[in-house]
Amino acid sequence: MEIKKAIMAVLPEIPELEEVDFSRYSTPLPGLLEGFERCGGRGLPEFQRFVEEKSDKSVVGRFLISLLQYLLIRYRRYGEYSTVKPAIKIFITLKGWLNENGYGKDWLNLLHSFLGYLVDMMPAIAEREECDVANAYLTLIHDLTLEAKKAFPEPYYGELEKKAISNLRDLRERCGIQEETSREKMRGC
């Protein structure tokens, strides 16, 4: 089975996955992925229906989490920038999928565990992407730090938010973007 082809069948809306090296990815469900790809399925909702015919929908969440972990490891260990945008998109996909399917507590666990990785990606995004794209990604990551700061009492999340807002402000200053941050909007500044 060509794993990249199967992953692209499940997540065709994330074309950046084409650039990722999946040679070391060990999927938790090779049979389901292979079967889905072989029957011509496309997209996450169709994959979920396919999985539910054979197993439990939680398998879909486990697949997405394993994919996120793989992308984060590739970035952290090998510095592969090609994993950055797919990791962020899968993180947001997981937020929606987990909350829509009754796994809201699991979303908070993911936010708690993996947000620091996304904040660490901010300087690379600011350096490599055009201003408008970088601004969109950095704003999204900053908004996630605000969500985490509200949800978790640990000082670490306040520090993450400070780091995120600093990265976002630096980018906006460099690019001449005059836009309030979410934190400023919340304060009414």
Radius of gyration: 18 Å
**Which quaternary structure do these chains form?**
single chain
The number of helical elements comes to: 9
Q: What's the total count of β strands?
A: 0
β-strand percent reads under 5%
Globally, the shape reads globular
Q: Could you explain how this protein is built, in words?
A:
It is a single chain. The protein has 189 residues and is mainly alpha-helical. The chain contains nine helices and no strands. The protein is globular. The N and C termini lie far apart (54 Å).
Element layout with pairings:
Layout: H1 3-10, H2 30-38, H3 44-54, H4 58-78, H5 84-100, H6 104-128, H7 131-151, H8 155-175, H9 182-187
In short:
The protein is mostly helical and 189 residues long. It has helices at residues 3-10, 30-38, 44-54, 58-78, 84-100, 104-128, 131-151, 155-175, 182-187.
Comma- or semicolon-separated keywords:
mainly alpha, 2 domains, 9 helices, 74% helix
